[in-house]
Amino acid sequence: MLSALSAAVVLAGAPPAQVAQAGPLAQRVEAWLSSKGKPLTDYAKSFVRKLAEVAAREGAPMPHVAGIRSPRDQAKAMHNNYLSAQKKGGEAAGRGWVFATYGKGVYAKTVLGHFERIEKGEATFDDWHQYFAAYVKKSRIPSHTNGRAFDVTPRSDAVRKLIDMTIAEGTREKLFKLADFADEKSPPHFHIGLSASH
Ligand SMILES: [Zn+2]
């Protein structure tokens, strides 16, 4: 579903090819970028432009790029993922999902603590959302809530190759630096976090 903030914008659809496709593709990319407005950082924008350029040059369809989420959407997505892991594999699976996704440090333990308190009825989703919104506001880690992370789909070898080329060229041209890459399996996508390269 598309919404103003969680924009799973589909830039795909260009048939393999033709450099002539680069015109309309570039226009769609620019339209998507301007629809994102301020929350998207300049180096994140430069990544999407470079990805479109590489895809057009290689004659490959532009992958789908999903970008910004509000802190509330992100807090909800995290909680839902935890609940669905738990539903499939019990309490250990819920905990396992948190640690596999967020490491085993203080942050992961804090997140898990919030989820467990919600479960016991000692806290509400709003308590978790408020904590998370305050956390992302001061965090410098690239994320969907600060315009410095993307999900790219489909998750395939061809798309992985496009991403690798985009990152190599972007780094060389000092457009952006890869800060975080994850090959996510559920749902299948590549997660990319960026920071400025200078
Ligand atoms: Zn992501």
Fold and architecture overview:
The longest helix is centred in the middle third of the chain and has 32 residues, at 71-102. Residues 1-20 have low confidence and may be disordered. The protein is elongated, with a radius of gyration of 18 Å. α1 packs antiparallel against α2 (42-58) and α3 (71-102) packs across α5. It has six helices and five strands, in the order βααβαααβαββ. The chain is α+β, with helices and mostly antiparallel strands. β4 (177-184) and β5 (189-195) form a beta hairpin. It folds into two domains: 8-68 and 147-195, no CATH class; 71-138, no CATH class. The protein starts with 7 loop residues before the first strand and ends with a strand. The site of zinc ion (ZN) has 4 residues, from β3.
